[in-house]
């Protein structure tokens, strides 16, 4: 340990670093949950490097090994550079290497045989390392530590998948006689030990006292000004957060301030880069090359080149997605611009913490988008600065998550009854259904995988719903990049504007069967936004409580979504130029939802007649979806909603908000348990908006499949008032209770997994009759 600390050039580790390292060396799994730039990496590098340097011998004669997991390739590559720099004075005792999808095949065999510190991601562990465990046997036999960096990102359906991947890893390690210690690093989070325990399935010691020095951070909340333009239904339109962030990045670059602008979407990152370059060309053309975009979907060589330019200081300004939020060492930044609330307070502070990493003062600016949540936050800063960060929500027992991992585990090693406790209580219920679907076969006391194809290919752990769509330049055949399958219908449909490396393309055709989008370079003055329709049916109501005369429910639903058209909008102003119809197939999923109903008596008390009922429900639904990320650890794209004046299953006016992932991700359940606070904030956000009849800051959305019609602002406020009159007090205990799944749900899961095995992508049955009459919400997440 002394040699490792000296190699790191640190005489006296901070208290939290020393505490965490001591626990790890004593054999305790530990989670370090401290602020950005608090030296969390040293907390796990000290025990890892000291163990590798000590040459602790495993039974097979190979030195001790360690495995590092990062949520992004960029972070793994960045950490590998740091480890090599630290271990250089120590000779060749530490052999660190990155093993991911970008690693050349000729290097992979050397890594399997000789590397003792392998840096990878959960995707490669799931698809590459665990299915090939006999080839990794010497590494797994000697595995001493598993490092899980930025573990707060493992939430929702992705986190649930990673939790099961880690259980598969623990099972194989036990088969080879190893019992590794898990070392987790996280941004500050509520109850980090609880989240780490759910992720790993192991008891974990929590270290959360941050002893690192901090520079002053000036945090500004920025609301773009209103323009003279008017949007749908004559609503006032604010200047876009994208345009404001681009101007701020331009001004900071001109002044020589090293800055990153974080953007919610890949397209947004490209737009900010393009606008900033245009602005800089008007001031000093030599500065245009010092601003770039960074996002997923780039080719590996493009990403590595941008990372080198950022580290060297060649780039002054970067417009990036959250790939740079996750721990990459971008020391030396002076300012961070955040274009739109990133969805959680944890992500907000993580992004803001990218500036001032060397202890110096820094600037962070949150630029509000024109939507209910962002508007609420800039007018209620106490919701950001006076509240703790959120708990991490994940559900490893989600049967849609667990089923394919049971199949993968059975292919790796036949499942036995001794494995049931490891994979969770839902396992015993699912195994007979997987047998009935002819995915597993029981022989004596073990379950075996029955198919020829790889079981690991049954699921995409990031929930992206299949093979990525390749974006190909039509004239040259050059591969520009990829788009996630779940987002292809909305982002690379025919006629869509696609941005790549600052260049603009228009999609000529989308071939869903071959997963290819052909594009050609163009220079349109607009961008495109997809419009979709959604219907929903209730499958099972798990919990139902009275809210006065109304009801609040939680259970299983089936959602059908179809992209039907797209809008053309001016880049800077957002002005709508026209709408074009599309012919794309519908997609369905079974998921979890929270919904509430109101009665005729409540409508009478709220003075809501049939003419305005649809608009009041629709407006309340829009705003409640926008506000939920303040109460659940989710992104707006993780959730969706539907409202209908008379739903065929409830026979009452009903508003649904659902998880946008098969089987659910825990967000709707959190909404159910915090419904009083959530809907109170929703009512406040609508009522406090200065507009007369509704605008994007309260009840409108550019993604509404119904074109924001009908909407009734005052009706929504009165509706929520009468609903909240009967709201019971919230219970703090039980918010994380897991709903039990019935046999019918297990059968549906097994059928979905079998469908994926047969190449049908896990598509489920059609919705109940009458569900197509529902009015869709404004934010429908991609349906896998």
From TrEMBL:
Annotated region (Disordered) at 727-784
Q: Which residues form the signal peptide?
A: none
Q: Which domain of life is it from?
A: Bacteria
Q: Provide any one GO MF term from the record.
A: helicase activity
Q: Which CDD domains match?
A: DEXHc_Hrq1-like (cd17923), SF2_C_Hrq (cd18797)
> What InterPro entries does the database record attribute to this sequence?
DEAD/DEAH_box_helicase_dom (IPR011545), Helicase_ATP-bd (IPR014001), Helicase_C-like (IPR001650), Helicase_put_actinobac (IPR022307), HRQ1_WHD (IPR055227), MZB (IPR018973), P-loop_NTPase (IPR027417)
- Its recorded name reads DEAD/DEAH box helicase
Q: Where is the composition biased (Low complexity)?
A: 748-757
Q: Where is the Helicase C-terminal domain?
A: 248-400
**Taxonomic classification, please?**
Bacteria, Bacillati, Actinomycetota, Actinomycetes, Kitasatosporales
Transmembrane ranges, per UniProt, are none
> Which residues belong to any copy of the Helicase ATP-binding domain?
21-207
SUPFAM superfamilies assigned: P-loop containing nucleoside triphosphate hydrolases (SSF52540)
Instruction: Show the Pfam families listed in the entry.
Output: DEAD, Helicase_C, MZB, WHD_HRQ1
Q: Which UniProt keywords apply?
A: ATP-binding, Helicase, Hydrolase, Nucleotide-binding
- Segments of skewed composition (Acidic residues): 735-747
UniProt entry tagged with the keyword Cell wall biogenesis/degradation: no
